[in-house]
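Our preliminary data section would be incomplete without showing what the modeling component actually yields. Below, a chain of 332 amino acids is followed by its predicted structure, encoded as tokens that our downstream tools consume directly.
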Amino acid sequence: MIKLGIIGTNWITKMFVEAALATNEYVLTTVYSRSLDSGEKFLADLRIEDASVVTTLSDLYADIDVVYIASPNALHFEQSKAAIEADVHVIVEKPTTSNPVEFAEIEQLLAQHADVRYFEAARHIHQPNFKIIAQTIGELSEIQGATLVYQKYSSRFDAYLAGKEPNVLTREFSAGALYDLGIYPIYAAIALFGAPQAVQYLPILLANGADARGTANLFYDKYNVTVIFGKNANSYLPSEFYGLKETISTSNIAELEHVTYYDGEGQTENIGETPYDNPMIREAQDFANVINDPVGNHVIYNQWFQLAKQVNQTLFDLRSSAGIEFPADQKE
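Predicted structure:
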């Protein structure tokens, strides 16, 4: 069994732990929390009695195989570095780091710890329905781009309107719409079409300089991909991929609840599978496969790592095009 440690006690951490346990590949051994009470409540909610709570990273990394990091974005870099230096595998929530300079340092550190594996938890690209979309796009005679949408009113936006500064809506924590929600469609676009030749981001900014919503354009040789996302409004538009007459549609590029194929001649086919209730099970299993057999899964691991690197660079290029700077950039 893979000994799992976690950083963060929020809803997404709970979802990942439940997914990891459902694979029967992991055992949760250690929870890191700044508050002992918060960590103990987290374990109680999961009804897990044989795990410990620690309040220092050194204690967390002392006896685990892999850490799942779901802290605020700006903390991912230092916490990942500490794990790699302790020869602990890393599963880090999106985005891996704040900018390409930090990512390059992670890459250099991994070269010094060759047995450590570093995963970005982009759960949707591991879903069967995403793979069905990829296969169907590959069968099109011509690709004419896509329109990808992920816009959801943030549970923290009311707090922002009340005058507070939630982490997910501040540049100080390397957050905002692009890095918290836009990363889902950006990941999908690059996984399916490769890195764009050029990018443009048109954001709607909050008073604190963070982006609340925006439209990103990814430019390819023969087509463009338009990406719409945001945290201050809801959208119910589907995401679509375009052939000539054909269109592939999914309800939500992050959740991939269903996939529909339109042949352009009046015929429609549901080509998707019914997803798991917990959308993180597939990625947890994929990561376990690599950890348990790194040699046999070396090729797919490298593909995921290079994809994460391309996404990181594209996110940086997008916000640079809009003049959005993070405090983390000043360390460059």
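The first strand starts at residue 2 and ends at 7. The chain has a mean pLDDT of 96. Preliminary results of this kind motivate Aim 1 of the renewal.
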